[in-house]
Amino acid sequence: MALHLRGTVLPDGVVRDLWTLGDRITFQRPAAPAATVADGGFLLPGLVDVHTHPGAAGDSLVFDPDVFAEQIAAHRDAGTTALRFPGLLGEVPAALRDAPDSPRMITAGRWLAWAGLSKSAGFHTVTDDLVALAVAEAKAHDGWCKLLGDWDFEAAPVPCELLRAVVDGVHAAGGRVAAHCQSAEGVLGAARAGVDSIEHGMGMPEESVGLMAAHGTSYVPTLTAFARSAPRIKDNARGRLWHEGHRTMIRRVREAYDAGVTVLAGTDSAPFGNVATEVEHLIAAGLPPETAVGAASWTARTFLGLPTLTEGALADITVYDADPRLEPGTLRHPRRIVLRGRIVR
Ligand SMILES: [Zn+2]
């Protein structure tokens, strides 16, 4: 049976009636009877986490399909109906990709590390031919590849010319490039190369902000993960550099927004289904609350090529009692979750 929902539709802020027709929505009352499942409150295009890595228990480097299923279910049950995975330890099981209760998934393949970086981690795929592998990963997945612009924040990053060649190659293949950056030089190189998203951006130099705006590079600071790490950083010279980089990235969130950069919500850490926390960090960093909510909903969906709540759009809807633009904490308590036209809650 079709579902009927009525409430204030965001981001427009207009009270409307909408119905589901299969996995789509319509604002035209269907001929067939419909069950009213929400009357009042605020209707959002389903939440989005654009930086999450489900599929491994704890610190394991082995992809476990059962763990993956559990972790995407945790996202879904929190109202996160679309996910981008900038690096996964394995391939999304085919049965889960289009399962009626699975969030939408945008994959980017593995974490690609250029062999010239001074260090890499066990979960990285190290390669001499970053361009070829990046193009292959973007083609084999959902149009995205994920690479390291740097790794050790005290060591040299990937040369900008190489990153530029990757960007040119991936763009020519119709794909997009997400770059992990956690050093000032790494961020600057990625910004100069015109990658599509900078992930983390620790130590981001001021000069990067204008370059990102000019190139249309989005910023995914993953503040939740850094806030979790901060208390564990040692109080030594390296640790002080880390904290300085952390303070800088927080400052750049607002500066990036002011410059016209799209800032997006990604958690990069457990617990899964925690994008509401990232919204709160973005607000604390100075984003207007409406922008921060959009960073985990309508803006993020547009970034991923998914529709918002428009005629004929995908029926992914979360409903809240309070206006999340005024009370962002309400994002933790969806009253109703509809995914692919089906009721999750
Ligand atoms: Zn990550």
TrEMBL record:
Transmembrane segments: none annotated. It holds the Pfam family Amidohydro_1. PANTHER family: ALPHA-D-RIBOSE 1-METHYLPHOSPHONATE 5-TRIPHOSPHATE DIPHOSPHATASE, AMIDOHYDROLASE-RELATED DOMAIN-CONTAINING PROTEIN. InterPro entries: Amidohydro-rel, Metal-dep_hydrolase_composite, Metal_Hydrolase, Metallo-dep_Hydrolase. Residues 42-324 form the Amidohydrolase-related domain. This is Amidohydrolase family protein. GO terms for molecular function: hydrolase activity, acting on carbon-nitrogen (but not peptide) bonds.
